[in-house]
Design goal:
Number of helices: 10
Number of strands: 10
Distance between the termini: 27 Å
CATH architecture: 3-Layer(aba) Sandwich
Structural class: alpha/beta
Length: 253
C-alpha cells in the first residue's frame, strides 16, 4: 500500500437505486502518480471515478456507503463545499465538451466563476494552462475564435487546460482518448506523462495498451469489485489473480 496516498477509498459501496454498482472497494491512490482503472464495460470503473469528486450526487437514487478520503479527510463530511472539492479534483470526460464560447473564455471560465476579476491574472493563467496542455502554440492566434472550431484532439486538450486553470490537485480522466484518432491519442498520452509530476492522475481506459503506457499503478475492476491493484508492470506481467490474467490475456472482456 502506498504511504503517500492522496485519495483513499475505504469499504466503499455504491448503489444506483437498488442496484449495487460497487462492492467493498478499498483503494489507495498515491500522490503525483498515474493510476489506471481497467476492466470490461459496466464493471464500475467510471462509477468509482465519479465518486471521487461527488459527480454521482447529481444522479437521483444514488447513494454511497463507506469513506473516500482526500488528504485524509472524508469528502462526504458535513459542511464540505462540493464546488471547492471539484476545484481540487478536476475531471475530463470521455468526449470533448468545450463550452460554446471562445478558446480563451473556455479556459477562463473556472477562474471567473471562482471570483477572479484581475484580467491580467486571468490572461496569464489561461496562457499557462494552455501551455501545460500542450495547446498554446496551436491556438495562440485563435484565442478569440469559437472553441467548437477546434479539432477533436484540440478540444480535448482544451478541456484539460480548462480543468488545469483552477489549479486542481487531482485530475480524473474518463477514457479521455476514446473518441480520438491515434495521433490525437498519442498527444493526450504524452500530456499525461508530462503532467504526472505535478498532479495525481486517475484514468479510466478501455485500452490495456494505454494503461500500460501511461500509468504507474493499475487497478482491475470486475463486476463492481476491485479484483487487484499493483504496480502496472506487475499487473501486466505477473498478476496475482487468475481473473486479472484472463482479462489481460483476452480470455474475456
Amino acid at each position: 500500500m502506498p504511504e503517500n496516498s492522496k485519495i483513499s477509498a475505504r469499504n466503499l459501496n455504491f448503489y444506483y437505486g437498488r442496484f449495487k454498482a460497487l462492492r467493498e472497494i478499498n483503494l489507495e491512490v498515491p500522490a503525483q502518480q498515474v493510476t489506471a482503472l481497467i476492466g470490461p464495460s459496466g464493471c464500475g470503473k467510471s462509477t468509482f471515478l465519479r465518486c471521487l469528486n461527488r459527480m454521482n450526487d447529481l444522479i437521483p437514487g444514488a447513494r454511497l456507503e463507506g469513506e473516500i478520503l482526500l488528504d485524509g479527510k472524508d469528502i462526504h463530511r458535513p459542511g464540505l463545499d462540493v464546488v471547492e472539492l471539484r476545484r481540487r479534483v478536476g475531471m475530463v470526460f470521455q468526449k470533448p465538451n468545450p463550452f460554446p464560447k471562445t478558446v480563451f473564455e473556455n479556459v477562463a471560465y473556472g477562474l471567473r466563476v471562482s471570483g477572479v476579476r484581475d484580467n491580467a491574472a486571468i490572461s496569464a493563467q489561461v496562457e499557462k494552462s494552455l501551455r501545460r496542455a500542450a495547446l498554446f502554440d496551436e491556438v495562440r492566434d485563435r484565442l478569440h475564435d469559437s472553441a467548437l472550431g477546434l479539432s477533436g484532439g484540440q478540444q480535448q486538450r482544451l478541456c484539460i487546460a480548462r480543468a488545469l486553470a483552477v489549479e486542481p490537485e487531482v485530475l480524473l480522466m474518463d477514457e479521455p482518448a476514446s473518441a480520438l484518432d491515434p495521433i490525437a491519442t498519442q498527444k493526450i498520452e504524452e500530456l499525461i506523462h508530462e503532467l504526472r509530476s505535478a498532479y495525481t492522475i486517475i484514468i479510466v481506459t478501455h485500452s490495456m495498451q494505454q494503461a500500460a503506457r501511461v500509468s504507474d499503478r493499475t487497478a482491475f475492476f470486475y463486476m463492481g469489485e476491485l479484483v487487484e491493484v499493483d504496480a502496472t508492470e506487475t499487473i501486466f506481467t505477473r498478476p496475482s489473480q487468475k481473473q486479472t490474467e484472463d482479462y489481460i490475456t483476452g480470455r474475456f472482456g
